[in-house]
Write a structure and sequence with these properties.
Keywords: Mitochondrion, Transit peptide. Its main location: mitochondrion. It comes from Discina gigas. It contains 1 helix and no strands. The termini are far apart.
Length: 91
């Protein structure tokens, strides 16, 4: 076998090995990245469930407070403009 043929064989073998290694490395990195996304999604879902639970608890507390307290609507009577009310500017 000639020297050029041996060099070509070694170069192509090394290149193929490098490509195979790179593909495996890239797949492993991509898998880890995808798994990190799943973990982030689970954390977001957990936080969303906690917030919804807090909201539901507050809603129930509001219902209980409304049952125990009698709140009547407040009627505000506004003075007509120019009548010397508190909102008019002094001259």
């Amino acid at each position: 076998m000639s020297r050029a043929a041996k060099t070509t064989l070694v170069a192509t073998t090394a290149l193929c090995g490098g490509v195979v290694w790179f593909v495996h490395y890239f797949q492993r990195a991509e898998k880890e990245l995808m798994h990190a996304g799943v973990i982030r999604d689970e954390e977001r879902s957990r936080i969303k469930r906690e917030r919804q639970l807090d909201f539901d608890v507050q809603k129930e507390l509001e219902k209980e407070f409304k049952k125990s307290q009698s709140v009547s609507p407040v009627h505000v009577v506004e003075s007509p403009p120019g009548s010397g009310g508190a909102n008019d500017a002094r001259k």
